[in-house]
Amino acid sequence: MNTIITIGRQFGSGGREIGAKLATVLDVPFYDRDLLTRAAKESGFCEEMIQCHDERPTNSFLYNLVMDTYSFGYNSAAMVDMPISQKVFLAQFDAIRKIADEGACVIVGRCADYALSEYDNCLNIFIHGDEKCKVERIMRKHDLSEQKAKEMIIKKDKQRQSYYNYYSSKKWGRADSYDLTVNSSVLGIDGTVKLIRQFIMDFEEKK
Known about the structure:
about 210 residues, Rossmann fold, alpha/beta
């Protein structure tokens, strides 16, 4: 197997758990927050700084500058005046590509599908869920009231949406931005993993 799987997810949908279990089933590396550690190590940024800006929307509108700088590399003079949020994004962008070049893996979030848009061995998945299931999951996981869980879900999803829509040319959560979208509330975590695994196997056979 040489397929790279990227997973976008609504907060509370179980996307991270699904990604981790999928990686275990496929026996490939799994990257979520440890991607930040690698990005920090390879870019020279401290890990705390990378985490501070992780999947958070930027307040500036320098997208073209970011991508132009990426094209010319870190030695571009534009990097000097670039806001830290853009520098962090570029560090993650580079780390994602280097990870993908090493072989099959599962990567959660961080606009990985956009970073790997030129890779023909990449499958992009989006996990969503019913509100009731997401709220109950977050209540259990974080020991929150129903109202606090709903507020957290709204806040986190807004952050992810803003981040993705800013840096990507696609729209977060919209079906035509991905190869497969799955409602994890229908089949549960293990059922969703099984479904995605079959999708990957069929994709590999088609190649």
